[in-house]
Amino acid sequence: MGLNYRGGRSCPRLALLVLVCCVGPLAANRRNIPRRQDRLGPPVDITLDSLNCTALSIQWRMPQQHADTITGYTVFYTEVKADEPIRQQSHDVPLSLDMFGMGQMDRQAIFEVVIGDLKPGTLHTVSIGAYGWAGRGKASMPRNVTTLSQDKCMPPAPPSQPQVIVVSDSEVALSWKPGPSEGSSPIEYYTVEFIRPDFDTKWTAIREQIQMDSMILKGLTPNDKYRFAIRATNSYGSSLPSIASDIIRMFRE
Hints:
Blueprint (H helix, E strand, L loop, with lengths): L9 H23 L11 E7 L5 E6 L8 E12 L2 E11 L2 H4 L9 E6 L7 E10 L2 E2 L6 E4 L16 E4 L5 E4 L13 E7 L8 E7 L3 E4 L7 E10 L2 E2 L9 E2 L4
Antiparallel strand pairs: 1-2, 2-5, 3-4, 3-6, 6-7, 6-8, 9-10, 10-13, 11-12, 11-14, 14-15, 14-16
Protein name: Pikachurin-like
Organism: Crotalus adamanteus
Pfam families: fn3
């Protein structure tokens, strides 16, 4: 009856059995817990730039560690007013299959996102975090960037009233002069609008971008009356329309 121990040799076996029973489940649980060094790291070489009064450009590179397990990034940006965050917003940048084939092997790919619809002259804090199959990684340290103030993003002033000469039954020659201010950047092109006072209630814009301060406009309707206006455009937008030209009538066919 009972157990018979000889020379104490059975005791270590019993102790070993108990140790395995106790340690085995604990080791299994630890294997299911992600190691700290496996957590996705933040991007590197982050650069922020204010594109204009309402938009920011954010660029970064993928870190070499865990690059194969990253499936996208989230950009967090928060408006700051009187040193207090107003609201945090986020923008996801999922990695497409094309991105994985463009420089990912040497980790040289540059990612960029443009955040728009912001307020002029407003401070924002920006941070970026990766996400993947294992979850979300640690976000980068917040960085500050400010959109340009409104006075640095001005469109041009309206051009002068256009002068119109009827050339034929379907063509006119238009000419004008730049307005008193180009705005915050040089004028890139002009556009023309017209209206037929006897028929139209709205102006029609011609999509052609004109690099000069004159042009020949073709394809008009013989014997119809027309008025014309000009807009100037720079990198920050288009001007208001110029004063409308005098009313002209096209020649008869």
